[in-house]
Design goal:
The protein is α+β, with helices and mostly antiparallel strands. The chain contains three helices and six strands, in the order βααβββββα. Strands 1, 2, 3, 4, 5 and 6 form a six-stranded antiparallel sheet that branches. The longest helix has 18 residues.
Length: 159
């Protein structure tokens, strides 16, 4: 099985909120950039979007904020494709703090945040979902990994 390369970023001072750690909006930003990297790796890059008028749209997401992330932290985001069908893909991102910009997460490292996403392949001119080209769907399928234990859960009700 092939794995996608890690997406990397460093927490900037302007990403720090009034609580002294990375604001939730910037977790979404980093995860969004990791989705862009997934698109590039699977053939849904800017050239594809320009030539076809199609793109990947996130239609549902679930983020878990697990640990505070300080200013200057080096981030590595692991992406796993959980499945792909004719018009949709399901994938997760796991964000880790690593010791240096090019470091790998330790084998026993726990993520600081995760997100699970459902995305549709959309024909932007028609304004509706359309099938992935076979090459893209096959690439997504080849990247499919088992879902982590936390995927597929919903937010618990407040008692």
């Amino acid at each position: 099985m092939t794995r996608l390369p890690l997406f990397r970023s460093t927490v900037r001072p302007q990403w720090i909120d009034y609580n002294g750690h990375m604001s939730e909006a910037f977790y979404v930003l980093v995860f969004g950039h990791a989705t862009d990297a997934l698109m590039i790796e699977t053939g849904l890059d800017s050239g594809y979007r320009e030539s076809t008028g199609c793109s990947l749209y996130t239609v549902e997401s679930h983020i878990r904020f697990l640990r505070d992330v300080p200013e200057g932290a080096h981030l590595a985001v692991r992406t796993r494709v959980l499945g792909a069908a004719a018009r949709k893909a399901r994938f997760v991102h796991e964000m880790y703090v690593v010791s240096a910009p090019e470091s790998e997460p330790a084998a026993d490292a726990s993520p600081v945040a995760t997100t699970e996403l459902l995305a549709l392949h959309v024909d932007q001119q028609a304004g509706r979902a359309t099938e992935f080209p076979d090459t893209v769907r096959h690439r997504l399928t080849a990247l499919t990994e088992p879902a982590p234990d936390w995927a597929g859960r919903s937010i618990a009700a407040v008692a």
